[in-house]
Design brief:
By secondary structure, this protein is mainly α. It has 5 helices and no strands.
């Protein structure tokens, strides 16, 4: 009985490998900085603290799933961010995190 479920789990894991290979992560301290700035902006746009936290957590997860380490580093740079990359990030977060 266990063999089919293990096989299914293995197949599902194998299908997810290409997605995981493209996933990135925030540099040290950058995720906290993102969360702080994001919740501040979201709260200023009328979201309560809990909703702002949920939206920003969703946004951070979407960025980590859809951008490489280098892209995330560029999004976090203080010397200017590529406009196309920023637009892509905004689109990804909007698609992943906007209810409607």
């Amino acid at each position: 009985m266990r063999f089919p479920s293990l096989l299914a789990l293995s197949v599902a894991g194998a299908l997810l490998l290409p997605v995981a290979a493209n996933a990135g992560s925030f540099p040290a301290g950058a995720k906290q900085n993102y969360m702080s700035q994001c919740t501040k902006v979201a709260s200023g746009q009328g979201l309560d603290a809990k909703a702002a936290q949920q939206h920003c957590t969703c946004g951070a997860t979407a960025i980590e799933k859809n951008f490489s380490d280098d892209e995330i580093k560029d999004l976090n740079s203080s010397d200017g961010v590529d406009a196309k990359l920023m637009q892509k990030a905004q689109t990804v977060v909007k698609q992943a995190c906007t209810k409607g």
